[in-house]
Amino acid sequence: MNLFRNVGRFAPWGLVGAAALSLAACEDLGSGSQRALSPIPPETLALMEQAGVTKESPTLIRSYKKEAEFQIWKQRPDGRYAYLKTFPMCRWSGQLGPKVREGDRQAPEGFYSITPGQMNPNSAYYLSFNVGYPNAYDRAYGHSGGSIMVHGACSSAGCFSMTDRQIAEIYAILRTSFNNGQRSIQMQSYPFKMTAENLAKHRLDPNIGFWKQLKEGSDHFEVAGKEPSVGVCNRRYVFDATSANGQPLDASAACPPLRRNAEIEAQVAQKAAADDAKVAELAAAGLRPVRVVYQDGGQHPDFHARIAEVSRPEALVAPIEIALDEKTGKSRSPVIAMSAAMSAAKAKKETEFKVAAHEATIVKQAEAAPPAEPAKAGAFAVATDSIGGLLGLTKEQPAAPAVQSEPVAKTEPIKASAKTEVSSVKADASKTEATKASKAVSVKPAVIATAVVAKSSGAKPAATSSQAPASLPSHRAADPAKKPQASLGAERRAKVAAAMGGASGLREALPPVPARP
């Protein structure tokens, strides 16, 4: 009997141990105690002073998935809440819409309560706290799952993920409020900011009815400036309402008669009517309804340049907006449209990657390649062109570019005959500048051509390239005092024709040039 008493006495400790073991699978127990004691940064304390609040005053949280923002609000002495600061969300997973079941990777949406017991100083994700999912509304619909956290490490599988530095500051703010008497902290989790523009774009989304309930709670907070009381009856959220007959609210049962603040209700109704009118105006102006699809959640733009710090960065592609049919409220083929859009996004990403890789390869090859020698290649080309011109075998040149405005002297090719007739350059005296330019360009090729011919005949050139006489340009007129060379025979002409493919053939085909005295 004593044995059973002892077992019964230690049974609660056994349950605690079992719970600790279950947490140990995903939590690094005992390693983060010092992290949980981090103070609130001085710059945040300065913001509190500017807002007229203290670090000990009650705290309220508002989060927005689409905008990836995590806001902290603090209560002023008059009971109204003042905005303190926004933490850009490093990562959230899933789609816009509520969490429905275990393992759906959805970050929940709704109104949740965080208590001191939900704070986890020993998290494997630096620090964390449980948001309180599922709440009464979720349970009324049979939504399953749990352990949805706000944590660090910038890694999310259905949670709200921050950086380690961010979660340390958020944790310190919540801890300070709890230590000064706040029993629970309300977290308002929204799919997006409840503006008329967002509601107009998502007006045909299957979750729009649920989101309008969340907007009602948001309106209560913004109109009154105070934390709204949240209840659930008839499987709907009710705000700032109490049972008129004292009957407790049952999430799954019909709502009893409710007592509300008439002034606040009138202001909320007025705001809702104005927003509805704006939604109708935007729809009439042509703003199309869409369904926004994420590959797996999103992040704040501040983290786009720090993609290496994010879990599953390949999933953080831009969301796809699928246009919905205004008449049916559905896309023509959601599955096909979604698949096509995802394929297009993937193909675009692959193309951009291939183009970038190709450009990088070209740059590397250009850097590794030895420097080109344009002078040698150009000299050989000029030499062969000049020799061919002397023989009357020049190839037809392409048309001159449009930018050449000054005419140049035209040279007629030398024709092989019994008496070689070399046509003189037809240069107009009024075109002196063009003639000078032609001579300046042709001096060097002529010298090179002379050097090649002299080498083939064994004679020494009359002058070096640095001492080229002005009387040796390739386009000079024939000297009538000198006798022309003998005409080329059939065999030599055949050699010339065969020699056009290479310089060695040209040298064999050329007649010997007598050395000048």
Automatic annotation (TrEMBL):
Question: Sorted alphabetically, which InterPro entries does this protein's record hold?
Answer: LD_TPept_cat_dom, Transpep_catalytic_dom
The entry's keywords: Cell shape, Cell wall biogenesis/degradation, Peptidoglycan synthesis, Transferase
The L,D-TPase catalytic domain is annotated at 59-187
The domain of life for this entry's organism is Bacteria
Q: Which pathway does this polypeptide act in? A: Cell wall biogenesis; peptidoglycan biosynthesis
Query: Among its keywords, does the record have Zinc-finger?
Result: no
What residue spans carry the region label Disordered? 398-440, 458-517
User: What's a single GO MF annotation on this record?
Assistant: transferase activity
Q: Which Pfam families match?
A: YkuD
One GO biological process term is: regulation of cell shape
- Asked if the record carries the keyword Electron transport, the reply is no
Q: Kindly identify the residues recorded as the active site.
A: H151 (proton donor/acceptor), C159 (nucleophile)
> What PANTHER family does the record point to?
L,D-TRANSPEPTIDASE YAFK-RELATED, LD-TRANSPEPTIDASE
What does the sequence similarity comment in the record state about its family? Belongs to the YkuD family.
* The protein's name: L,D-TPase catalytic domain-containing protein
User: Which species does the entry assign this protein to?
Assistant: Methylosinus sporium
